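Extended Data, panel c. Modelled sequence:
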Amino acid sequence: MVRQSTRCEAITPFMSKKDLSERDICSKFIGPAVKRAGWGGMMQIREEVAFTKGRIIVRGKLVTRGKAKRADYILYYKPNIPIAIIEAKDNSHSVGDGMQQALDYAATLNIPFVFSSNGDGFVFHDRTGASEQKEATLSLDAFPSPKDLWGHATAPGKGLRPTRKRSSCRIILKTGAAKAHATIKPMPSTQQ
């Protein structure tokens, strides 16, 4: 009996990392690296988080919405306490190519730690402004644990303090003389 090859086998016997989409990079490299660092999938990691509905565009009598902004990952130290954001890019981009987009999202959401990745590693940016090194490049295996990031965020002089208010949490981030405030919607509870 002769085995017929499928169409995919005839085209590509294997795929290189450069051929993978951004979503593939997330599921095969970034997500597993974050989970290996000790982040819990159900309570600490949210993927594809929409945080705006998109700009309202008016043309005459027609009204439409632009594209909504979505963070690839938001990491929570505990439910309702967002601590980091990760912007993913496909592997045809450099590791840090998503940093500016992630910094913009982090400023909007007032999240202190920012990461960018293309599946080869991470570029880490500390928005608290209190560390000696504001940006660093990390390997996939060097992603910080929740405990490490929280310890970094709450170290003396960091200017972060969580405040409870109903079912949401505010992180107050001191940047120079100004303070920025943002309230993030709580993660859905998985408890019945």
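The chain has one domain: 18-184. This feature is highlighted in the accompanying rendering.
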